[in-house]
Fold Phosphoribosylaminoimidazole-succinocarboxamide synthase.
Amino acid sequence: MSELLYEGKAKKMFSTDDPNVLRVEYKNDATAFNGKKKAVFQGKGRLNNAICTKIFHVLQENNLPTHFIDKISETEQLVKAVSIVPIEVVIRNVVAGSLAKRFGLDEGVSLGRTIIEFYYKSDELGDPMINDDHALALKIATEEDLAEIRRQALKVNDVLQSLFSEAGILLVDFKLEFGKLKSNGALVLADEISPDSCRLWDKETHEKLDKDVFRRNIADLPETYEKLLSRLEAVK
Ligand code: UDP
């Protein structure tokens, strides 16, 4: 028996016969600006599933705990059931997007140190930025959760900077979500890591290989994601 549990902007989640396992289906929909801009791209689900699978395999090889189990079809994965910590964790290595706007900085300037930002996951509120005190006072997460999230986020950043660097790509910034396994409560990386949730630039030309091509009408999204996938697949 398989029941649709949740439909998001880019994915559907289904139950499986095992209560600790869910099936994720990647959709062809693309959205930006909190759902205000929308389009459907043939092949997007397949591309994000393939890119995300490659990334989760590399994270697992580096002993990072994730919810990922296996890719089971062109557009589907099996993942471990988690309860999501309602924080979007943004990790930044280079100035771009909202950081550039907020501080009046030029996009593309390397940050001397990595910045981690927390946003409270709430579509109605537009994901407001929060700090540790908000997270603790509003009981969004515990001190232990926040420490573990920071530790894992920095390690993910190291592993992914190396992976993308080998593909000739700069990891500018990206968003992570964490969850607690239904089976034993352990904190693990969840959700997806894909060009929908990362900024990835060619190291030399700064050509964009992520969803900004759609947000800013720069290039064709499936062609861009295909280019990214083939560059990642060339990394052993
Ligand atoms: N991001 C995301 N989901 C969000 C907000 C941001 O995946 O709801 C990712 C985004 O793709 C980028 C990074 O987080 O890689 C930083 O995004 P930023 O805060 O600069 O916001 P944006 O400019 O995308 O609105």
